[in-house]
Amino acid sequence: MLHSLKIDERYIDRDRNILTRSTVVTSPSVWQTERFKTREREQGPLRFCTTGTSDVQLTDDDRTCEKISHGNYQSVFGTETYTDGVHRIRLKLEQGSANVLMGICSYSKTLAGTVYYNTVTTHGWFVHGYVVVNGREPQPGWTQVHDQDVLELTINCEERSLSIYNERSGAQSSMDVNIHEAPFPWCLLILFNLKHSRVSLL
Fold it and tell me: For residues 24 and 40, what is the distance between their CA atoms, to the nearest angstrom?
């Protein structure tokens, strides 16, 4: 059944002709449901945030993140959450084509453990060619990404899907997101394994 929607023009990105409504994340230190009782606003500059780990360094006004020590997987999150509309995020892999994941997770469910890719809400692509859907074991199916590649991640809340596009190679991939396992709101997730892996927002 089709429904007539009234669009608030404050949330239209006229340069890309897409809807861009998001919610500001007030604090990344504790990932709990009550944390997103925040005011809604027009989408501003996206930045990275962490859960307080000393293994990740944020620079360039929190628009570049880098893993600075050896050890377990570490996660970095975007400062916006997404519940509707279509949102495009451009990411540059500055360094770390061996093992970095770019994707999303549910903000409303606390991330548990150190290997966040096996959390059921996690969806995304490892840059060495593996895909993660609903936190299941990574499977091959994505073209290898090289250092300095720019990737556009498209979060489509309307169609409940996620896609990625490599601007250098033209390679692209997409997946559906089961919102029963990965409920709204979603947020950007970058997952690091190796020291000196670095990703920037463009």
Answer: 7
Q: Which fold does the domain 14-201 belong to in CATH?
A: Jelly Rolls (2.60.120)
pLDDT for res 6: 40
Read off the pLDDT of residues 9-42 as tens digits, 9 standing for 90 and up: 433 333 333 333 444 443 343 443 333 333 233 4
CA-based nearest residue to 110, from 29, 192, 193, 26 = 29
The encoded tokens of residue 2 equal 């089709």
Average per-residue pLDDT for the chain: 81
| Domain regions of the chain by residue span | 14-201
Structure confidence by residue, pLDDT tens digits, 85-127 = 999 999 999 999 989 999 999 987 756 555 677 888 999 999 9
Strand partners, 90: 152
Q: Cα–Cα distance between 134 and 153 in angstroms, integer?
A: 17
Strand-pair category, 123-126 with 100-106: antiparallel
Distance between CA 51 and CA 134 in Å, rounded? Answer: 21
CB 154 within 8 A of CB 165: yes
Round to whole Å and give the CA distance between 187 and 202.
17
Q: What angle (nearest 5°) sits at the alpha carbon of residue 134, between those of residues 119 and 124?
A: 90
